[in-house]
Amino acid sequence: MTVLVCVGSSCHLKGSYEIIELFKARLAKEKLEDKVVLKGTFCLGKCGIAGVSIQVDDEIITGVTPKNFDDVFEKYVLSRVEG
To answer: Which residues contact 71 (CB under 8 A, 6 or more apart)?
Structure first.
């Protein structure tokens, strides 16, 4: 599985580097570093939406914030890796 976190101008201002750090910590906690590739990417084309945009495999998820990060991680990453 590949997770891309947008680090383009808009998402950078919305906290993309904090989201990357949350991903790193959660992947380590769940011991998923060997199953999930985490990368930064430039614009995913969803700049007008609040929060950071990420892409999990071929699906773009918008509106990721520290507040909803755990829910996003469990729905789009953890469930797919375990499932």
So the answer is: none
